[in-house]
Amino acid sequence: MATIYSGIHLKLKSMKTPWEDKLKLARFAWISHQCFLPKKEQVLMDWVSRALTGYYSKKLQFGDDILEGLWTYLDDILHSKKLQKLIEKGKIITLHATIAQIINDRIGEHCSNMPSNATLSNLVTVLNCCRGILTSPAFAIIYSSKWELLVDLLCTLSLLLCCRLRSTEALRSTQLFEVLLLAFDLYLVAQRQQRSRGRVFLQVCSPLLQPFLLLRHLLSSRCWTSEDEVAVWQHLSKEVGQKIQAALQGGLFHADLLNSYREELLQDDGSQEKKVSPPKDLVAPMETMLSKLTDAGLFGPDLHSAVVAGSVPLLYRLSLESYCREGNHLLGFHIFARFLDTLGFPEPTGVGPGQEPADWNPGLIALDQLLSLTLGSNIYNVAVDKIRCGGLQFTLYSRVAEMLLSYPRQEIPAWFRCLRTLISLNHLIVEPNLDDLVSLAWLDADVSDPRVGRAQESLLCALLETYTKLRQLPRLFQEVLAIIARPAADELRRPVLSAGLTEKLRECLLELPAGQALDIWDLMLKSLEVLIPDLSGDSDLALKALAVSTLLNAVLFNMKSLDDKTPAPVLKRAQLLMDKMTRAVVTPLLRTVSEPSGKDRSPWALRAESSGLLLRSTWVQLDHMMKLNCSKYVSPGGAEAGERGLHCGLPLEGQGVPGQSSALSLHFLQLLAIQGIKSITMQPGSRTEADEVSLRSAAVRVVRLGEDAVKNAGARAWDGELGSIDDETYAVAHWHLLMSNLALLLPHLPEPEVSHLADVVTANLLLPERDCGSENWLSIPAMCRSLLRSSLLPEMQPLHRGILLRLMEGVSSLLPGTGFNLPACLLEQTGDGGDASQEAGNQQSSALGSLGSHPSPTQGSSLLNAQDVLSVKETPTRTLLEHQLDRLLQLLDLLGALRLDSLNGADHFHCFVLLVSLVTTLKPKLEKANTTKCLQALSQTYVLLTVLQTGTSCNVVFKRAHAGDILEKVMSPLFPAGSRLASCAECPVWPEFLDVVQRFLTVSVQAVVERKQSMCLNLEQFVTFLSSTWLSSARSKWRPVTEQLLITALSALSRVVVKAPLQPDKTRHMGNTLHSLLIQLVGLLGAVLQSHSDRDGRLEQNLTVLGVTALLETELCLREEEEEDVVPKEGGVICERGNQDTQGLKHADLYQRTCFQVLHRLPSSPDDPESVQTQLEFLRIYSSTSGLCSDCDNETGIPSVLSAVKALLTAPKVTQQFIQSLEVQLVELLHCVAERCTEQQFYLIVKSIAQGLEVNNLWNGQHQEVVSSLNLTALFLKCPLSGDVEKTLWFIVPQIIMALMVLCKESALDQPWGFKVTLLSLETLAVLVHQGEGILSNPHHVAVAFDVLLCVPLDHLRLDEYGSIFRAIQEVLFAILQSQPKVLFNAAPTFFQCFNRLALSVMHKGRQKCVGDKGVTKVSEVVLECAYLVERMCTQIASKAEKFAMFSSFAVAEYVSELQKVTLDADVKRHLTVGMYHLLDLVTESDLRFLNASLQPGVREVFKELYNGYTHYHKSKKQGEEKYTA
To answer: Alpha carbon 68 to chain centroid distance?
Structure first.
């Protein structure tokens, strides 16, 4: 059959065969095994190559469909698996080189915007063919062997991608990027193999440089959209950028081209280095590259400047990475200079003509990057430049600085960054133009954009820091004052200092010598002295004086304060400046304002007044602070100078009228008033009546000066700077001043001012939270919320009570008739009283006292109103709308934040009555949304009632009403509303509501029991109410909500009554009453639960399990009482009370059904910790009841309980945090299980646990089995076992210890579960060692425990894992140290081996060189905690001196040997050093001589430094303490 198709190649060559048939024959020949052709694959490849070549050379003619078919056929061949297998087998198949040129031409045709009609072939197919060639080394040789073809391909692909990026169409395909990356890979390999570096340079410069730079710019500046392919903008575009950089660096800045650059750029360099001639084919590489860069032909005029600005920093960085080595820094500078010229900046003003660029932003960003690279590469060395180069670099940088200041662009952040970098290079660069810099970049800069503001602040902080280090800060402030003295360019000059700049100024002033700080002070006083004489009537001078005053205030409050260590000359000069300030500045300034010309409230007068008050307040506070800190300081003018400072110039009472004084003046008047209050308060002795009047007057004045402004402030924000106080921010500044001094002002404020403060706080608390724009900005609502969260607010009783009353008024306004407006006579009766006689006396005296001021009918009606509020009669209900419920929830949340448990008696009763009225009045609507919010409001109300019932004044309520009435009043509204609440029974809000109600009832019933006054009477009344509710519910339609509420109430009541103590003097009567009450509870709760079980068929709710638990506890309590009441009488006759069965339980079937369902549900409910706790509590009580739980029942007996617990611990979703939250319940349950088991059963249990710890479980993948066994082991060890059970457990402990060691060794190799198993093994070992005190006496067991610790890896752990493992090992060591003293002495070397391992691991984690990596700015808290644990362990070791004295020196030697190798973080080193000090307490003189002799020289120096610190800080302190120790 093969011979039939042997003539196909003749038909392919024949001119008579149609091209359609040729194409079909070629396809058939390629895929058919029956076609025989010698070298068939090569023949077909040659045929399609010749056909394409003939078509594009005009030798052949056929249609477009044939052309497309030929390209598709070539694509199919190149990507066929058949061809790949043949090539892999070594068969040689070649491709004509003309195909590469054809592909390049076809791609190039699509680079233009208007392709010709001849280029109709599909570009996708052409690119596929290109990818097939590039991915096959056998075919890629047609490009790699001919360098020009590869360069041309790379150029055309780059230009094609540029065209795609310039268009608005989305890039939905990755094909072009993938082909380009393949071409880059091939090119980079060929580039490295080229011998002629000059040829490579020219190839990169001529055809490739511009496409590369344009492509890079378009990739970085494109705004990617969701329509673009994700892989393109996430990965491929970045890879293309990296390939471009690699190609440019290898082509333009190869190491072989260094001499060419040196020859071109260092021709006039005076160095005597031997010049090496450059390659003959490469002359002036820098000029060649820049000529292509500055040619705008390809870029176009619209993109040229942007592309150049984005490319110059890249090229400069690549040149520095290649050439910036020792000795080539001058070359780097010349490259910088040549690149700088390409940015097209104009010459500085006065140097030469220059044209400003249309857009400064790209150029300034590029300049910023160039300067940053220069600074980071240490290109500029001041001394070398001045000595060897004659200041060549300095001249250029100075010209750049002059250009920047000649053409200021304060709206661009890069302008500020360039100046900052120039200052970092050398402050002398900007020194000649320092006045222009201060003016343009600081005082006269109008900056509103936050990004620009950050750049400006960074520049000014660098300026302050630089002049502080140079000790020339007075020189800088001299320029600042000179600029301020100039005529202002704008009437509204911006504040001199921002918040960040003030912080930096504080740091600088603290580093500055005291003399220079005083120099700055003196300069500002001289500046003010010049301004004051001509101030009257001149608004501009007043503005300058205010600016200088603000700056002086910032300097004086941030410089070092005088103290007793201040040198006498500095102290004397400071006193002279204080005198000069008040005599030559403050007094004349205020006198100018007090003149008739200054009373017209014109702008100059307002500014002058603000300036004078600011300086007066500054002087007073500074004088007061110096008096406190420096005993040698004397106020200028004598002891009464401070008082004169308070009142110099105009009297306080004559200033500060809102609307007539400026906001800044009002603020400083308040500061002066507060300073006056402080002065009077700090005076020794008792205060006079005049002092009290002054205090009240000053406090009232402070509040009233901003009263109107605060009411209308809203949520405006203030940055905290004095210079930014104006009419808009004055209210915030005033409120901040009030809140900062609230504790000082509040005792002296009368009731109207306190009410005003409470109104403002309440109004702002009810405002929605808004973003202030910055974390450090202040707003009134934010400060009010901070006050509400403060622990000091309850201590401020007047304000706390005022806020409480406002919030309660808000609640009352939503529900009229809630009993809020209780008369004063009733509130007076709610004081705390001791007993009933005192209560009656108080009522009588209050009633008698109120007769004189209140008419008798009013008093009677008020008492009647209170009685109505707390009585059990029905009250009218009210429904609220959605927005009203939202408002109510907000008010209740704020009430909850007020800490209601600390209220006095009157407020407590007032609030309780309101909340009870709210519960009885609020009624939900039928809509589910309204019902849900109403339920939330009721939940919050019950929470607040619970808080009140646990407060200090809880007895006040019970003195005004019977406890039974209160409980009935609070619960009665819920049952009628059951039909409306039923819609929320399935919502998450409903279980929370039931839980809240249960907590309230528990607390209330507990309070009734603790009062011991009519306890049984009140509780019986409440039980009767619940019983009647149940009977009425049973007769009507079944409502599950009613049953749940009854279960909640009865459960809470039962659990409290069961634990109620009996009074010794009423044992018999009280016992009988409680017994009957318990019988009622059992009957009622059992009936409700039984009904619920019969109707619902299941007991899966957490509430129901809780109710069954309470019922079981109550029945058990009854049975115990009945058993105790069976008393033997004389003659052997036994008298029993009643005919109750003393052994059986009435609801045993209910308990067993509940147990069965709980055991079934327990393993599948790890998502709800509270539910699991309830179920475990039930199982504990159930397991301890002999009549219910059998030790052999497989359904509800002890084995099934233990199986359920193990299944819970084995559940996949169970975490260690979950188990730790259940530890108490689990230990109690397992203790009951262990006590109920026989010895043989418990042995089998422990044996199964030990089998679960075997390592073959890890090998078999049963990791969860190992985890559950570890948890069970730890829990059983924590159980307080005794007798045979305890012996059985400790009999198998040695086997457990060995299993733990094998687990730790094996889990180190187990990646997914290794950490968890290791951590649990260590925690179990710590419990075992601690609980084995006095039992675990075999030293071998402790030695095995040490082996466990030594096999645990501490390296290659994540930081959180490392902290957990470290704490677990430390706990084991601590347990051995505390619980195994007898075996510790022989095991001391191993103990120290484990301890040293921990200490060295902390040193490795706390190395200083790790700080700063990957954005870390400080050492982790985990490492600090571990270092503290090492210090604590050293303290424990030092307490066992007799056991560790001979080994402590080795631990110290290990520490100093490692310390010599690493540099520790300061905090970590502090903890470890203190720990080593404790170990050095155990080191003897012989040990010291041994250490000094044996340590290496470098380590010995570290030890000497450690020991010197020990003797200086620790040893002397210890000896001082021992001196006074008995």
So the answer is: 60
CA dihedral 71, 72, 77, 81 (to 10 degrees): 150
pLDDT tens digits for range 1097-1116:
454 567 888 889 899 888 88
**Inter-residue contact 1368 to 1319 (CB < 8 Å):** yes
Residue 1377: name the closest of 1364, 1401, 1395 by CA: 1395
Q: How far apart are CA 19 and CA 278, in angstroms?
A: 57
Tell me, rounded to whole angstroms, the distance of Cα 1505 from its chain centroid: 39
Which secondary-structure segment (H or E) carries 984? none
* SS3 state of residue 878: strand
According to the model, what pLDDT value does residue 88 have? 80
CA 965 to chain CA mean position, Å: 50
The yes-or-no verdict on residue 169 having pLDDT over 80 is: no
Task: State how far the Cα of 996 lies from the Cα of 992, in Å rounded to an integer.
Answer: 6
d(C-alpha 661, C-alpha 605), whole Å: 9
pTM (two decimals): 0.76
**Type of residue at 853:** S
- The three-point CA angle 1418-1424-1429 to 5° equals 175
Burial class (CB in 10 A: 0-12, 13-18, 19+), 276: exposed
Between 450-469 and 473-485, two packed helices, what is the crossing angle to 10 degrees?
130
Nearest-CA neighbor of 1111 among 1178, 1184, 1198, 1027? 1178
Q: Which residue has the higher pLDDT, 1518 or 1415?
A: 1518
The 10s digit of each residue's pLDDT in 1057-1110 is 888 755 444 455 566 777 888 888 888 888 888 887 776 545 456 788 888 989
366 contacts: CB under 8 Å, gap ≥ 6: 308, 309, 310, 312, 313, 343
Neighbouring C-alpha atoms within 13 Å toward the C-beta of 1229: 26
Tokens at 272, concatenated: 């005597």
CA 516, distance to chain mean position in Å, is 41
Give kind and range of the element (H or E) at residue 565: none
DSSP 191-225: HHH-S-HHHHHHHIIIIIHHHHHHHHHHHHH----
Say whether pLDDT at 749 is over 70.
Answer: yes
Identity of the residue numbered 1242: F
**Beta carbons within 8 Å of 102's beta carbon, 6+ residues apart:** 52, 53, 56
- The answer, yes or no, to whether residue 1033 has pLDDT greater than 80, is no
**CA–CA dist 627, 631 (Å, integer):** 6
* CA dist 215 → 174, 298, 318 (Å): 16, 11, 18
Nearest-angstrom CA–CA distance, 961 and 954? 12
Q: What is the pLDDT of residues 852-874, one digit of tens each?
A: 333 333 333 333 344 555 555 55
The string of DSSP codes covering 646-715 is: HHSSS-GGGS--BTTB-HHHHHHHHHHHHHHHHHHHTSSSPPPHHHHHHHHHHHHHHHHTTHHHHHT-TT
- Distance in angstroms (rounded) separating the CA atoms of residues 1284 and 1243: 10
3-state secondary structure of 36: coil
Six token digits for residue 46: 């040659």
Using DSSP, state whether 790 is helix, strand or coil.
Answer: coil
Dihedral angle over CA of 1239, 1245, 1247, 1253, nearest 10:
-150
The DSSP-derived string for 121-157 is S-HHHHHHHHHHHHH-HHHHHHHHSSHHHHHHHHHHH
Average pLDDT score over residue span 1320-1339:
86
By DSSP bridging, strand 1127-1128 and strand 778-779 are unpaired
The phi, psi pair for 32, rounded to 5°, reads -90, 140
Collapse the DSSP code of 95 into the 3-class scheme (helix H, G, I; strand E, B; otherwise coil) and give the result: coil
Cβ 767 vs Cβ 781: under 8 Å = yes
State the first-to-last Cα distance of the chain, in angstroms, to the nearest integer. 117
